[in-house]
Every structure is written in C-alpha cells, then in structure tokens.
C-alpha cells in the first residue's frame, strides 16, 4: 500500500523531502504539491503529482492521505489546523509554530480530535549518534546528567530572509528539543548572553550563548552561531556525575595531500542529517499509514516554542526568563 502524500512548501527542505519521498523511501508517493510560488511547486512536482493552487485545497483533496508541511514557520499553524480538521496525519517541519498561543491552539485541536496526528520535524531524535548518546545517558552508568553543551553552527544563513529572531525561534528550537529528549527533562528558564557581533552577518545578531535551566537543576549551554563560514558543525557533550558522553564527530574520508591531513565538514543540515531525515520519514510513513503520528509531538513543539519565546524575552531583559507550561494533556502522556 502506498501512502499518498501532499507536500506544502517546495523550497529548500521541501525539495529535499520530495527527493527522499520519491527516490529513497518506499511505501510512499508524493501525489500533490502546493506553494505560494506556483512555479516553484510546478518545478518540484514529481511526475504525476497534482499541483494545487492553495494549501487548503491540497489538504482537503481526496488524493491526499497525509500531509508534509515545509512552508515558513509563521504559516504552519493555519496549515496544521486544517490538517487536524480534515483528520489527516501531518508531518510539520520545525518550528511547529512561532508563538505560545498558536501552540496551544494546535494542541487543543489535536486533543479534541482525540488521536495524535502531528509529528514535528525534530530530526535529531532520529540520528543514530544522538540515539546512542541517549541510550548511554538512560543506561545510568554515568550517573545523573549535570551539564549538556550543545554546539550548533551554520556555515551561513540566507541573507535578508533569516532575521535576528531566527537564531532563537528557528535554530535554537533544535537544541531545546534535543536537550529535553536527551536529558528526559523540561526547560524551566532561559538566559541569553550576547558576545560581540560577528561582522560576517552584517546587522544580524550572531552568535548567541543560551543557557537552558532544566527542572532537575541540570543546565544546557548552547552556542548558536549561524555565520561561522567553515561548515555545518553540530556537537554535543553531556557531563554526568561519573563521566562524560559525547557525540562523535561525523566520520569522513581522511584526505592527505600537500596541505596536510584533513576531513571535510558537512556543508549544511541536508548533508549532516541525511540519514536522520530518512529515518524520521520511515517512522512517520508507518505511523501515518495507521492514521496517526510518532516521535516529536505537538507537546514537544509547544515546549520548544516556549524556550524560543523565553530566549527572545531574555535578549531584551538580560534576565533569567522563567517558563511555565500547562499540564500535559493525556494525549501526550506517552510521547
Ligand atoms: N529540520 C531541519 O533541519 C530544517 C527545517 N527547516 C524548516 O523548514 C521550513 C522551510 O524552510 P526552507 O525550506 O529552508 O525555506 P524556503 O524559504 O527555502 O522554502 C519555504 C517554501 O515555502 C513556501 N511557502 C511559504 N509560506 C507558504 C504558505 N503559506 N503556503 C504555501 N507555501 C508557502 C515558500 O514560497 C517557499 O517555497 C521552515 O519552517 C524551516 O525552519 C528548514 C531547514 C532545515
Ligand atoms: O532547521 C534548520 C534550519 O531551518 C535552521 O535555519 C538551521 O539553523 C538549522 O541548523 C537547521 O537544522
């Protein structure tokens, strides 16, 4: 049985997901696409896929059994609510939404529907190295986690399109989510420190040091640098009571030549997390085929949104901004 999927948003990641859904993964077919730029949707549409004028028409269509949202963050809420109203499983790229109120509306709609339909694109949870790191922490031999250092460096970001809020509400959300998941903890407060501005990004506020205070007392120390130039560099190290566990550097061919001995660094997220994205969709296809979702939930999207909101407040106030969450709805108890 083929799962007939409709993809909304055919920009960078939309095209990459269409490639994996058509050329890499099985049990799935891209039956429809939509983008506010119709020419981009037409160019990205695989053979035989229908191009819709609007996301609403795509979501409502009988051709589409499940939806993949790859539009810009602020557009996600409306599209998610339409999918939930239609009762269709939906994979939504991060950030799930861009405000606390929007996250509450998505969770309210899904809990009223009564079954999980939403999976958020926090792909690090599907990365084999992060999974092994979590298994070591959960195994308990190192004792309680005390400090997690999360380094998140982008070579560059699209000039003009990527604004000064985005290191916190678009990029940091990955570190927020992976920290909560790795440490099995909840973030209760956020501080932000601003080193001197990198001249590489013009007026863009970059880099950021973000401290996530967790309910257990553990602290996550995040570096967000989005114009580091040399490559896409993701690192993580957990200091526990009796030892340290770290993500390995990605293995790459070792090149020796007149310039020395070196390994290449991934250019961007598409290269670094290629297997993780494949795996997140493998698991989504199975769940969506059963009319539901798996992995990162709307609750996780909500938690990451609260961290982003608190971080944005912390930039303004310079203070430790506290986070208060609603009680976890029963629908997300197992997630
Ligand atoms: N999980 C990950 O590692 C990554 C996630 N993302 C997320 O994916 C989303 C898209 O990012 P990119 O592909 O890099 O952006 P992009 O700008 O390359 O593409 C976005 C596309 O969505 C379309 N679009 C925007 N609003 C729309 C609407 N209301 N209806 C229909 N189409 C609409 C745009 O015309 C554009 O073609 C963002 O939420 C971003 O944060 C992006 C890169 C990596
Ligand atoms: O999600 C992603 C992008 O949208 C974001 O802009 C980058 O900073 C992240 O590293 C990438 O994983």
From TrEMBL:
Keywords: NAD, Oxidoreductase. Gene3D superfamilies: Dihydrodipicolinate Reductase, domain 2, NAD(P)-binding Rossmann-like Domain. The keyword Transferase does not apply. It is an enzyme of class 1 (oxidoreductase). Involved in the oxidation of myo-inositol (MI) to 2-keto-myo-inositol (2KMI or 2-inosose). Homotetramer. This is Inositol 2-dehydrogenase. It comes from Salipiger mangrovisoli. The gene is iolG.
